Amino acid sequence: MKKFAVKTTALLIAAGLGVGAAGSAFAAESLQDVMKRRNLTQQDLLAAAKTYTPTGGRDEFLAFASGGQSGQMIVYGVPSMRILKYIGVFTPEPWQGYGFDEESKKVLAGGNIDGKSITWGDTHHPAISETNGEYDGQFLFINDKSNPRLAVIDLRDFETKQIVANPIMKSEHGGAFATPNTEYIIEASQYASPLENQKFYPLEQFNEKYRGAVTYWKFDREHGQLKADQSFSLELPPYSQDLSDAGKLDSDGWSFTNSFCTERYVGGIEKGRPPYEAGCSAKDTDYMHVVNWKRAAEIAKDDKNVKIINNHRVIPMEVAIREGILFLIPEPKSPHGVDVTPNGKFIVVSGKLDTHVSVYSFEKIMDAIKNKRFESKDPYGIPVIGMKDALHTQVQLGLGPLHTQFDSKECVAYTSLYVDSMVAKWNFCEGKLLDKIAIHYNIGHLMTMEGDTTKPKGKYLVALNKLSIDRFNPVGPLHPQNHQLIDISNDKMQLLYDMPLPLGEPHYVVGIQADKLKPAIRYKVGTNSRTDQQHEGKVRAGEEKTVREGNQVKVYGTLIRSHITPETIEVEQGDEVTIYLTNLERAQDETHGFTVSTYNVHASVEPGKTISVKFKADKEGVYPYYCTEFCSALHLEMQGYLLVKPK
Ligand code: CUK
Ligand code: CUA
Q1: Domain presence at residue 121
Q2: CA distance 449 to 482
Q3: Contact of 638 with 631, CB cutoff 8 Å
Q4: What confidence category does residue 274 fall into, taking pLDDT thresholds of 50, 70 and 90?
Q5: Of the residues 29, 51, 73, the one at which a domain ends
Q6: Does ligand 1 have an atom closer than 6 angstroms to the CB of 554?
Q7: What confidence score (pLDDT) does residue 277 get?
Q8: Is 29 exposed, middle or buried (0-12, 13-18, 19+ CB in 10 A)?
Q9: Residue-range definition of the domain harbouring residue 567
Q10: What's the pLDDT score for residue 16?
Q11: How far is the CA of 267 from the centre of ligand 1 (A)?
């Protein structure tokens, strides 16, 4: 059996490469049988050989996908497209105990807004931390568009460590984007609203009282935390700001943020007006915002230059204009993505309602600023650089160009064409279309390996398709999305694989060379994984105890195959119970889980970790607790009883 399998594999590859299969008649026939039975072509075999990963094999790249409306993240391997993990971020995720143990509840509470907990998120754009414009594999950031928030994930254990709420925005789409040394994480607002918290102004005062903004969150790499007190924002006009990107190399120190609806149109004020989307597309151009964030960071330190809004430092537009840190450039109407080329010299913008990509030259922009060559001012007095003065080239690619990523090959870019359902490969230096491939269907973002850094790795492209329609077995009216893997190592792009993504709409994905990641195998015994500190509830084997203070009962327990210590917990009805548990295992992958019947608590306790669950024992009765991971032959015996005695 073994021998047969080896031969078949060798022949499959040989046949796929067109070498022919003359070796063993039996095996060759078998391969052809399979091809015939499954209706496969030579091209299919080649694609299979490029993605198939035998047991124990590893992927060259890891992809981190936003989980869209699920508020989580999805980790998968490239080229195998095997899903490896979900990461709970803005939404409780029971497998990891996220939102069901005390440590993760504290992380989620960091994202409370107006004192209320929000248990979902609309995640759009992940970003990996960078050093000198290259992914360093230490941290991952992701935004929540609906409730303007950012989260920090530590890539040593793939756990969410921090959530912060934007102090002045009501929605955001322009995050998370990292500056080249992760000095700041950029977050730009989407729908303009009053910046003051819980402040009402009627829509008639839209132009005067509603504002956009871009926030620069200071990142403290040593502690892995965004620092609210060292962060600042720039007040922007009430345009709908959209995606952002940070400059790199030549353009380091600058950032770029798109906008749409610079018409400042608002719907619903009077009857008979055009609908919102029509009113918002009246003009031929919108504005790219060009910000000198390095200088803005200096300016924001001086109290004289900022307004304090909701405890947060905001540089008003008039200060930004006076200090020469904010400029506008017209861009084809209703733009979506803004992407800085790997050499930092060009900024690529595509308008959903324009068939071109527009390539702006950073050098030309700087030249216009230096020589004060402005064509006009916007209604708020912000200098506007003429489009012709800033453009390097425009290339006609097709209908609905959205986002652009880059190849390891010089000057080569890929742009998604939403309406055409295609990916275009083109040259941004010479402004030339090179190749096109059909995808299925309606692509949003696309992603090449490390394709938004200074050193893209090429090889693969993933098309993030909004609609899958007929690609998979039907599962009801709500379809999964379709991530299509495309080989970009040759001149012609080749479609390799369709992967259904069933966990929300992963707007954007970032892919990193897997060997840059150094995830931990276990925690140091007694670690609170969410803070990376020694846990107050840590105990060693033999030191387990239960402590009572008034109606507070604290249990200091341990987990090791196949035993929960203590085996019983006795409390009185009404007691506040905290159970601390340390997993004493040292073996790889020996995770234990913990739950108590009907008290809605759950924890995942990986080797070395200490967790706590807390609840009020408000019901008299007998409640089994047990280990929720099948950890050993005596897993089912890994249990105990919570005994709640009547008062
Ligand atoms: S994305 Cu968020 S609307 Cu094109 Cu960056 Cu899908
Ligand atoms: Cu521990 Cu099952």
Answers
A1: no
A2: 18
A3: yes
A4: confident
A5: 51
A6: no
A7: 83
A8: exposed
A9: 534-645
A10: 46
A11: 22
In a domain, 632, yes or no: yes
Q: Which position has the token pair 């300016």? A: 299
Which ligand ends up closest to the CA of 629?
A: 2
Q: In the prediction, which pLDDT does 28 show? A: 54
Give the DSSP letter string of 121-187.
--EEEEEEEEETTEEEEEEEEEEETTTTEEEEEETTTTEEEEEEE-SS-S-B-S--EE-TTSSEEEE
Res 3: pLDDT: 42
Asked if residue 623 belongs to a domain, the reply is yes
Distance 507 CA to ligand 1 centre (A): 5
User: Residue 637 has what DSSP assignment?
Assistant: G
pLDDT per position as a tens digit, 282-297: 899 999 999 999 999 9
Q: Which atom of ligand 2 is nearest to the CA of 564?
A: 1
Chain centre distance of CA 319: 33
Look at strands 552-560 and 545-549 and give their pairing.
antiparallel
- The letter for the amino acid at 227 is K
- Which whole number is the average pLDDT over 232-252? 97
Q: Which two tokens stand for residue 243?
A: 């995606």
H helix or E strand, kind and range, residue 529: none
The answer to whether residue 631 sits within a structural domain is: yes
Instruction: Determine if ligand 2 sits within 6 Å of the CB of residue 563.
Output: no
In this prediction, residue 152 has a pLDDT band, given cuts at 50, 70 and 90, of very high
Please, what is the angle between helix 42-51 and helix 2-16, to 10°?
Answer: 120
Interval between CA 638 and ligand 2 midpoint (Å): 6
* Ligand 1 near 86 CB (within 6 A): no
pLDDT tens, 245-260? 999 999 999 999 999 9
Q: Is 498 helix (H, G, I), strand (E, B) or coil?
A: strand
Q: What's at 300, amino acid-wise?
A: A
**pLDDT tens column, 93-113:** 999 999 999 999 999 999 999
Reported pTM: 0.94
Instruction: List the CATH number of the domain containing 563.
Output: 2.60.40.420
Which structure tokens are listed for 239? 């345009």
